[in-house]
Write a structure and sequence with these properties.
Layout lengths: L1 H23 L55 H4 L11 H25 L11 H5 L16 H4 L1
């Protein structure tokens, strides 16, 4: 009975020590910075702070302008070019799942490539060999078969 109580106290003490160490060992230089802050921009003055939400996620029906999904007199967002219907597409797949699917596709293509490379048969025949250094002498030598240098008169 006493052994259980001692073990429980040790576990509680170890957890509190870990908590203290984790609180003191925070890395302030690597803390994430929010991309979009909710602070009011002083340059906007009394302009309303609208939620940063893509208009592509709005319902397609019930708007004065169904193509842009906005009503008459609705103030445009501060970053209208990003949240409008013509802005970047709102992703339908979570980034983690997209990265996982991309990794699976890369692994699949690599596996298919390796299997194809390993399964290709050797050449069914021996490569043809010509006498006299591959007919260099019979064709006039290396100097005779070089491409002629291009001059300005050739371009016309």
């Amino acid at each position: 009975m006493q052994a259980v109580g001692v073990a429980a106290r040790r576990v509680v003490r170890a957890r509190s020590t870990v908590k203290i160490l984790s609180n003191t060992a925070t890395r302030s230089y690597a803390t994430p910075v929010p991309f979009l802050s909710e602070e009011k921009d002083p340059q906007l003055g009394d302009y309303p702070v609208l939620p940063y939400e893509s208009k592509q996620r709005r319902s397609p029906r019930g708007w004065d302008d169904p193509q842009m999904r906005r009503n008459f007199g609705e103030p445009p967002h501060e970053r209208e070019e990003l949240v409008s219907m013509w802005g970047p597409d709102a992703p339908h797949v979570a980034p983690e799942r997209a990265a996982r699917n991309f990794g699976i596709a890369v692994a699949l293509f690599t596996t298919i490539g390796v299997i194809t490379k390993m399964s290709v048969a050797d050449r069914p025949a021996v490569a043809r060999e010509y006498p006299y250094s591959g007919l260099v002498t019979e064709l006039g030598g290396l100097e005779e078969n070089r491409a002629r240098p291009e001059t300005e008169s050739d371009e016309e």
